[in-house]
Amino acid sequence: MPESQIQNPKSKIAPIAGLVLCGGKSSRMGLPKATLPFGPELMLQRVVRLLSQVVSPIVVVAAPRQELPPLPAGVMVAKDEREGRGPLEGLLAGLTAVAPLVEAAYATSCDVPLLVPGFVELMIERLGDAEIAVPVEGEFAHPLAAVYRTSVLPQIQELLAADRLRPAFLFDRVNTCRVPVEELKTVDPQLSTLQNLNRPEDYLAALAAAGFQPDPATLAALGTPRT
Fold first, then answer.
1. Is the peptide bond before 154 cis (omega within 30 degrees of 0)?
2. Number of helices followed by number of strands (H, E) in the chain
3. Using omega within 30 degrees of 0 as the cis cutoff, is the peptide bond preceding 15 cis?
4. What was the pLDDT predicted at 224?
5. Which secondary structure element, helix H or strand E, spans residue 191, and what is its range?
6. What does pTM read for this prediction?
C-alpha cells in the first residue's frame, strides 16, 4: 500500500488528508514563517513535503490575503474565512476542503520543519473510533499535531459562532483520544514534531539541528547578528 494511503484498521478510514495551517501573524518571529529559508526549501515547502510522505491530499490553509510560495502540484489551498481567529478557523477551512474526499485529517502548523512522519502515522493509529486524537502533556494539548474527523465540522462552526475559540472547547465536546507525549517518543524521541518555531532563536536552533546554515540576508532581516 502506498504511504499516502495509510489505513487505520480500527477506524476503517483511508486515505487521511493533511492540513498545514500557516495563517498566523508570525509577530514573534518578525518575518513570515511560511517563507523562511530552511536548507534548499522554504519552511512551508518542507513541512508540506514531509507531511505528504504519509498523508494525501494536502491542504495549505492561509490567511485571506496571504501570499504563498510555490507548492507541489496537487496541493490544495484554502483560506480562512476570518483572519486572526486561531486554529479553529483554520481547521474549519481545511476540513471543509477535504470533507468530500476523506473522513479525517492530520493538522499541523507550518513552523515544524523537524516534523517526523512516524509521529503522524502513530497519531493516525491512535484515532481509533474517536473523533479527535490529540497529543497531551499533562493538561496541555497540542491542537496542531492532531487528527480530526470531518464529522466535527458542526461543532467547530458552533464554537466559532459563539466566539469560543480555544481548541480545548472542541476536545471537551466530542469523543477525543488524548495521547500522552511519552507514547509518541517511541517514534519521535525528541518530540521534534511538537517544536514550533516562534522566535528567531528557535529558527536558528532548528536549522542547526537539521545541519543547515542560516541565510545571511534572513539573519539581517531577523535582526540576528551573524556568527
1. no
2. 8, 10
3. yes
4. 67
5. none
6. 0.91
Distance of alpha carbon 117 from alpha carbon 190, whole angstroms? 13
**Three-state secondary structure call for residue 183:** helix
Identify the CA nearest to 69 among candidates 18, 16, 20: 20
Helices (H), 12-57: 43-51
Q: What is the pLDDT of residue 2?
A: 33
**The pLDDT value given to residue 48:** 98
Q: Alpha-carbon distance 9 to 6, whole Å?
A: 10
Q: Please, what is the Cα angle at 47 between 44 and 53, to 5 degrees? A: 140
pLDDT average per 10 residues of sequence, the chain (227 residues) = 35 74 85 95 98 97 93 95 90 97 97 98 96 96 98 97 96 98 98 96 96 93 69
Main-chain dihedrals φ then ψ at residue 150, nearest 5 degrees: -65, -15
Which domains are seen in the chain, by residue range? Answer: 3-209 (3.90.550.10)
Q: What is the structure's pLDDT at 9?
A: 35
Contact between 114 and 138 (Cβ < 8 Å): no
Computed over its alpha carbons, how large is the radius of gyration of the chain?
A: 17
CB 23 within 8 A of CB 83: yes
* The three grid cell numbers given for residue 113, joined into one nine-digit string: 520543519
pLDDT (0 to 100) of residue 77: 97
As a whole number of angstroms, the distance between CA 126 and CA 134 comes to 9
132's enclosing H/E stretch is strand 132-137
